[in-house]
Amino acid sequence: xxxxxxxxxxxxxxxxxxxxxxxxxxxxxxxxxxxxxxxxxxxxxxxxxxxxxxxxxxxxxxxxxxxxxxxxxxxxxxxxxxxxxxxxxxxxxxxxxxxxxxxxxxxxxxxxxxxxxxxxxxxxxxxxxxxxxxxxxxxxxxxxxxxxxxxxxxxxxxxxxxxxxxxxxxxxxxxxxxxxxxxxxxxxxxxxxxxxxxxxxxxxxxxxxxxxxxxxxxxxxxxxxxxxxxxxxxxxxxxxxxxxxxxxxxxxxxxxxxxxxxxxxxxxxxxxxxxxxxxxxxxxxxxxxxxxxxxxxxxxxxxxxxxxxxxxxxxxxxxxxxxxxxxxxxxxxxxxxxxxxxxxxxxxxxxxxxxxxxxxxxxxxxxxxxxxxxxxxxxxxxxxxxxxxxxxxxxxxxxxxxxxxxxxxxxxxxxxxxxxxxxxxxxxxxxxxxxxxxxxxxxxxxxxxxxxxxxxxxxxxxxxxxxxxxxxxxxxxxxxxxxxxxxxxxxxxxxxxxxxxxxxxxxxxxxxxxxxxxxxxxxxxxxxxxxxxxxxxxxxxxxxxxxxxxxxxxxxxxxxxxxxxxxxxxxxxxxxxxxxxxxxxxxxxxxxxxxxxxxxxxxxxxxxxxxxxxxxxxxxxxxxxxxxxxxxxxxxxxxxxxxxxxxxxxxxxxxxxxxxxxxxxxxxxxxxxxxxxxxxxx
Length: 682
Description:
This protein has 19 helices and 25 strands. Residues 1-30 have low confidence and may be disordered.
């Protein structure tokens, strides 16, 4: 695609693209705020605040324009100091103070961490490490959520808490188990037995299990279920078993969330589930994108971005295929270090609006004097004096109060999706592949995913991040599969149907190599999709090459490529400096659609020109043209710009525009201040 044509398209999109901005409330949530409502608030832990301090805190919140607080998380023993003895007197008063101030409450059920009394009375809740040592709960989240006593008492806590506050006028929503993906695996005998039960349900027999785990290799055949051991999350172990270990703990995590969701449906059916998830945590994680409709009403997360690509990726991942706005239940209060950096939170608060955000809640209101986060300063300093952070968050509240009348939260309806799967993250992780496969997977899955996502983000195109087998793919025109090393059978069939029905798919190297059990396909590659892509690929080499796509010469930045053997596919680009000039990118017509294969791992230098071509062909217009580090979207015919740099930036604009926020007029060029934002209209 020629740069001049691209520039014209970007300008046309910026000036002429008017998108529907209303965010519909989901079924059964008639009271849920949708279009025209944005929320700024804070996380609040009243456990060690006197009632006088609470009243002062709430007064400052109201004065700052906060609309919502999130409370209850991390505080199980505050509500239940001893088994079966509940004390809500202090929290009742806090809830009443919030209501009197007009502040709504997200009530987070504190299933994590479990109280010390629970660990003492029910030792099955303790974590046992890989060496078989039972560990004291030395830090939060050291709770075995698979233990039946834990699940029973967590559900009772949820039931008691939600019944008490179900009709409280301050209650807005219910959340579950703060950062539930950030827990620990356990290796007690009871965990092994639960794992065996899970395997029996999945495979039915030891014969099927042996086949799935390739136990014929290296004398690892399992004769009876009693011989099954929990695979190691860290250290040696076959790839197939490691994958099932991850799946097992994911299913337990989802089951715990299902327990709590059942309580919400029973006690507060008119309030949405709005939890602070951490499904990509390296400790354990879980299959959020394959389960969120079971336990979530809206996507929500803790947002602590360090740079735009990673921050936008996480904000997009938590949204999944939802059409509703995203809530950022924890939000960086300063960032850039323990005390913070001025303007940082305000910039990110504007940035997440581009991603379809509706609410930002600062972490946290009071600075902690002790515990695990002593120097993660809140909006008040350690001596209860309001810091500059409180002033900045009051300004964010004013910003949002203006923007909610101007088309926000913006409705996001992407036509481009990137495939992502928990199973694939497990197959890619340090212990996921075999020792030799780790040499093959030199580029991490997340790096490949970012490599496909970054060019779309920087062209200001909305993207969905989805699990292929969990979504209605017909809403998308283009789907990218970056480094999908494990592409399970259900996802393989979903890709086949999507292309046959007229969709366009892009798959990159290192994809569709292993089956559902993390074993390499015994068939031509890409497994199950050779006819869809019109090629086979068997050989691969650790060499970087240069390719020519149209008039553009591109150098791969990753030393890996696959030797593509077209069998019906058309060659779009070839390596110009490798022996025989092998194909670098191919395209194949299948059914009503197209399947594109890239011989290298996903990387921005290659994906950018390719995706621009495909988007142009598919009628997917890029967003407003912006320099690197500046992002923009069209909102009700206006253009909203956010500068993520700590220095001012000049942005070229076509013609004369007026700032809705400052009434300034700009002709030919817009000056965005450091970490600044502007909303322009003709």
